[in-house]
Design goal:
About 70% of the residues lie in helices and about 0% in strands. By secondary structure, the protein is mainly α. The chain has one domain.
C-alpha cells in the first residue's frame, strides 16, 4: 500500500507550497473587510481557509506515501458516489437564489462538482489503461465514457455551474486523447456537441449577457460589464510593483467575489504585474512538472492519471485568469490554491498528493 523509496518531485512540491501560502495571505488581505462586516472578525475567512489548507496538506503528505495503484479498484465506487452527490446537491444543496452547488457538512461546504472532476479523471485513466488498444473503438471504447461524462455535465449544469462543467469535460478529453482515442473521433464528437453548447449559451439570458459583456463590457458598465471593468481597474492600478499588500481599494465592495473568483485581480492590484506574473509562472512550473511526471510514470495508468490531474488544475487556473483579465467571458470558477473555497483547495491538494506519489515511482 505504501510506496518505498523514491523521492517526490521537490520542484512541484515547492511550487504548490508557495501557491498555498500566497493564497492564505491573499485570502486574508482580500476578505478582512468583508469578514469584519459579515462576522465581526477580520480573520473569519482566512481562519476557515487555513483549517482546510492544513487538512489538505495532511492529505497531500499521506497520499504522497500511498501507492497510487490503490485508487484503481476505487474508480467505479468513486464514480457512483460522485454521481449520487451530484444528484443529492440538486435537492438539499445550498447556494444563492436558484444556485445549488454545495452540501453543508459540519459547518463547511462540500462542492460535489469539484470532487467529480478528480473522480472522473481517475475513472477514465483506469478505463483506458484496462482497454488499451480497445480505446480506439468508438462504440466499445469511447462511447461509454462520453455517456458518463454527458450525465455529469448535465447534472453540474443543473446546479448551474458552467465553468466547472466545461473544466470536467476538458480534463476528460485530454485523458482520452492521451490514452490513444482516435483524434478523428474526438473531433467528430466535438462537431456534434457544438450545437448543444450553442443552445446552452442561448437558452439562458444571463449567459448571453456575459458574452456580450466580454465583447464590450462598457456597453453595460453598471450591470453585466461591472465585474470585468472593476477587475481590469484593479489590475491596471497595481502597475508594475502594486499598491502594497493589504492596500487594495477594489475589495471595498467595488469588485464582486474579490476573495474567490476574482482574487487574482486583488493580487495584481496589491502585488503588481510582478506578483501576477510570479503566480502564472508557478502554474507553468506545476504544468511542466506534472507532464514530466506523466512521461516518466511506470505504467499507462500512472501516465493518464498524472496527465488528468495536471490538466484539471492547469486548465482551471487558465480559465480563472482568463476571466479575471477579460480574456474570456465571466464564469464562476476559483483559482486553484489561491481563491477562498474549501472544496477546490482540498481536491487540488489531493490531486497533487497523488501526483507526487507517481513521481516517487517514476523511471529515470
Amino acid at each position: 500500500m505504501f510506496t518505498k523509496g523514491g523521492k517526490p518531485d521537490l520542484v512541484l512540491f515547492l511550487a504548490v507550497i508557495i501557491l498555498v501560502s500566497l493564497g492564505l495571505v491573499m485570502v486574508f488581505s482580500a476578505s478582512s473587510v468583508m469578514g469584519l462586516a459579515d462576522a465581526g472578525n477580520p480573520y473569519y475567512y482566512v481562519q476557515r481557509q487555513t483549517i482546510l489548507a492544513v487538512v489538505g496538506l495532511v492529505i497531500l503528505f499521506i497520499l504522497m506515501k500511498v501507492d497510487y495503484h490503490v485508487f484503481k479498484p476505487l474508480a467505479l465506487p468513486g464514480l457512483v458516489i460522485s454521481l449520487a452527490l451530484l444528484v443529492l446537491v440538486l435537492f438539499i444543496g445550498t447556494g444563492t437564489g436558484s444556485v445549488h452547488r454545495w452540501i453543508r457538512i459540519m459547518g463547511f461546504n462540500l462542492q460535489p462538482s469539484e470532487l467529480a472532476k478528480l473522480v472522473m479523471v481517475n475513472y477514465v485513466a483506469v478505463y483506458l489503461a484496462n482497454k488499451r488498444d480497445g480505446a480506439r473503438k468508438f462504440f466499445t471504447g469511447l462511447l461509454p465514457i462520453l455517456v458518463i461524462t454527458a450525465v455529469q455535465f448535465v447534472l453540474i449544469m443543473l446546479e448551474p455551474d458552467f465553468g466547472t462543467a466545461v473544466s470536467l469535460v476538458f480534463s476528460v478529453l485530454v485523458v482520452l486523447f492521451a490514452g490513444g482515442v482516435h483524434l478523428g473521433q474526438l473531433v467528430f464528437v466535438g462537431m456534434l456537441s457544438a450545437p448543444v453548447l450553442a443552445y446552452l449559451l442561448i437558452m439562458k439570458e444571463y449567459r448571453m449577457k456575459r458574452i456580450f459583456a466580454f465583447l464590450d463590457p462598457w456597453s453595460d458598465p453598471t450591470d453585466t460589464g461591472w465585474n470585468v471593468i472593476q477587475s481590469l481597474l484593479a489590475i491596471g492600478s497595481g502597475g508594475l510593483f502594486g499598491l502594497g499588500l493589504g492596500r487594495s481599494r477594489q475589495k471595498f465592495s467595488y469588485l464582486p467575489e474579490h476573495h474567490t473568483d476574482f482574487i487574482f485581480a486583488i493580487l495584481c492590484e496589491e502585488l503588481g504585474f510582478l506578483g501576477g506574473a510570479a503566480v502564472i509562472l508557478l502554474f507553468f512550473v506545476l504544468a511542466w512538472r506534472g507532464l514530466r511526471i506523466a512521461m516518466r510514470a511506470p505504467d499507462l495508468y500512472g501516465t493518464l492519471l498524472a496527465i488528468g490531474i495536471t490538466s484539471m488544475i492547469a486548465f482551471q487556473a487558465l480559465l480563472n485568469i482568463g476571466v479575471v483579465t477579460g480574456s474570456l467571458p465571466v464564469t464562476g470558477i476559483p483559482l486553484p490554491f489561491i481563491s477562498h473555497g474549501g472544496s477546490s483547495l482540498l481536491v487540488s491538494l489531493t490531486g497533487i498528493g497523488v501526483l507526487l506519489n507517481i513521481s516517487r515511482q517514476c523511471q529515470d
